[in-house]
Design goal:
This protein is an all-alpha fold. It contains four helices and no strands. It has one domain: Helix Hairpins (Orthogonal Bundle), CATH 1.10.287. It has helices at 4-22, 26-48, 70-101, 106-113.
């Protein structure tokens, strides 16, 4: 079993979380959320990967042949769609915040509330 994809997924998660924590710009924050989301893509693909396996089309595959898990592929595709939707929604929120306040700095927005 190869642990490299799991390590890369953990690294992407840590880098994305670090960016979220230290972000000084809302657009940067949205990009860091997308990086965290991409770590889930890699994790799902690493879980579903089978060495020397074929696509899960069972029309002309011999009985003993291993195939890749189609459920994990469907989950990854769903994850991509949800990630794109979340990114679009967050960018729409950022646009509205900038229109109303003229700033994208989260700390400055917190001071405006006081």
């Amino acid at each position: 079993m190869n642990v490299l994809p799991y390590l890369v997924a953990a690294w992407l998660l840590i880098i994305g979380l670090w960016g979220i924590i230290t972000s000084r710009n809302l657009v940067h924050l949205v990009v860091c959320v997308s990086v965290v989301q991409s770590s889930t893509y890699l994790l799902l693909l690493a879980i579903g990967y089978r060495s020397h396996a074929t696509a899960p089309v069972f029309a002309d595959i011999p009985l003993g042949r291993s195939v890749v898990d189609p459920v994990v592929q469907a989950l990854c595709l769903t994850d991509v769609v949800v990630g794109a939707t979340v990114t679009a929604l967050l960018l729409a929120f950022v646009l509205q915040v900038h229109k109303r306040t003229g700033s994208l700095d989260p700390e400055q927005l917190a001071r405006m509330d006081d």
